[in-house]
Write a structure and sequence with these properties.
This protein is α+β, with helices and mostly antiparallel strands. Helix content is about 30%, strand content about 25%. The chain contains 3 helices and 8 strands; from the N terminus they run H-E-E-E-E-E-H-E-E-E-H. The strands form 3 sheets. The chain has a 4-stranded mixed beta sheet, with helices on one face. The longest helix is centred in the middle third of the chain and has 16 residues. The protein is extended and about 75 Å long. It starts with a helix and ends in an 11-residue tail after the last helix. About 15% of the residues have low confidence.
Length: about 140
């Protein structure tokens, strides 16, 4: 089993990077008729990111599996396979993470600060108190 520190050393510079998609079109042949189908594709920057992740894994004798949100994966254990997760942050961006539960840290921006302020304000609101009916 590979130590978490080693994984962080290998993949740490990729963690927190955004994986973006862009609208694209794909031509398919349906019964001899060519049709264009809307299909999201990786941006060139994201394609390079995925290639770099796999290259870093290969340099260290590993394979990397990048798991997109909602993707079903096999649960078999492969000692040399590393699972990297794309997790959605508050703005809907997909960020690369070594952990399936934790969105990687990044510098907060105005939207994050506004949302944090809103959630703090909401926590300070007290829930309404209802009196039980008198029987």
């Amino acid at each position: 089993m590979i130590e978490k520190e080693t994984l962080t050393e290998i993949f740490g510079n990729f963690v927190g990077q955004e994986a973006a998609m862009e609208p694209g079109n794909m031509e398919v042949d349906v019964g001899g008729t060519k049709m264009k189908v809307a299909n999201d594709v990786l941006t060139p920057k994201t394609f390079k990111l995925m290639s770099d992740v796999r290259a870093a894994a290969a340099e260290n004798g590993l394979t990397a599996r990048v798991i997109w949100p909602g993707t079903m994966v096999t649960m078999d254990f492969v000692e040399t396979r590393i699972d990297l997760y794309l997790l959605q942050d508050l703005k809907g961006r997909l960020l690369l993470s070594l952990d399936s539960q934790t969105v990687p840290p990044r510098a907060p921006d105005h939207a994050d600060i506004a949302v944090k302020g809103l959630t703090t304000a909401l926590r300070q609101l007290k829930p309404p108190r209802f009196k039980p009916p008198v029987v």
